[in-house]
Amino acid sequence: MVRCLSENTSSGIFVSESLSSGQPIPVRRDTVAAFLGPAPRGPVGIPVTIGGIDEYLQRFGVSGHDGPLLEVICQFFANGGKNATVVRVCSSARRHHIVFPGPSGALTLEAINPGPYELLRASIDYDGILPTDLDRFNLVIHRLTSRVRPIIERQEVYHGLSVDITDPDFIGHALLGSELVSIKEEIPEQRPDITFCDDIEIGTSYIYVDPEWAETDHLTDYDLIGCNTEGTGLFALDQIPSVDIVSLVTDEQDPGPVALFAAERYCRKQNAILLVDPPTHWQSVGSAIRLARKSDFMSPNVVSYFPRPINSKQQPASVIGALAGTLVSSDARAGVWGMHEDAQLQMRGRVQLPFDLNVEEQQALKRVGINSLRITNPSHLELSGLVTLNRGYGCAAEWDKLSQRRTALFILDNIARSTQWAAFQENNSETWSELRDQVRYFLYELFAEGALFGANAADAGYVICNQQTNSDSTPVGESGISFVVGFMPRGQGMHSFRFHQLPVECRIQTLHIEDLVALAS
User: Is the separation of the CB atoms in 297 and 264 below 8 Å?
Assistant: First the structure.
């Protein structure tokens, strides 16, 4: 029987179950910040949750290759971030191969993770195999930290593999559970030879991956976006229960309009905020304001700033990691709604700014939805304005304010995810009553926490789920359940939304005054 001894740490991948009708909707939960970008190695298209820099380096890092994603992650944890969700994106699907020769052909193993820095070595021996058992062999696979210091970071050991497809220990079946390699080509009929190197007389011999390969391609917008059906790029985030903050990290050039519009659309669907560095061609306050006004890229789910910092090499840098970490830390202390709209965000970071902004310039930037960045001391930054890139376009003017928009997204997302159970129930009065109780209690808790405004809890929010909301709003041919929720965030009027909960998704529609009049009638 094959025994695989895998010395692997936690995958960083977690599974979350949706709530049932009897469970309260959480008023407090950890803010989920996701970062997509290039890393030297590690899994591609898989969201991995990491709790610190050491864990990031173990999964994605290579000695001597810092990169922009590492810098952003360092900023995140330096500013109070607790857990970061990382999705590695790469420009090529090319993978390393290890080829074992044999009497009837070669056995070829392919690295699970693409890229030149996914450094592997492997060895085959017949230790403990009976002389009469000619189909069996042992396989050892190592993942190494770097080419310069080849320390074993991860190991998989397979005892008693077989090349016989009818054998329970067939290698093709055994390696399905490997996190390091897979079978690349047809498996030979006879077992591969023992690994032997002429220059090694004592100890185990290994076959290493190609040491000369170096990748030079840069990420494109389509690498960042990925594929919906394959779950790569942005769509890899569909594998996690929820996401609140998304950051795109590129190598040497800004994300293009294709990536930005796709990311904004994705964040809008996920009730998330997209953090965006200002384009490098914004060279002055005047050009930033002029180009922002000319741009079609505007959304209440996007946050940007100006000016863009520069590093010690006078190259464009980023503070989106610091911003994400500060937001996560603030949410943990005071809730998403606890950030005052007139306050400034204090962030840790050592960067240079090309110039300082005066008060008039800060106000002018704020009017076009751009936050202002300034250095308060050598190790701290301040972000003021706290606005989204909405600019009052196509949405309520209240969504210009970052704190109010994030509060609304938090409420909408929690209701949508926590009422999913109702889509699998009978659409009847009993289900309506359970759903109303669940949402009503959530709104009461938000009012008690200070997230909603009103003379009392009843004035701060409401929920309607009855025969009218379902018979009038359910599309022909669709199942599910529909209900209306209204709430009054601090400093705003009442906002109302229609939820249509389906087994596979929840559709949320903003209701206007004419919709509410029709509903009341």
Answer: yes
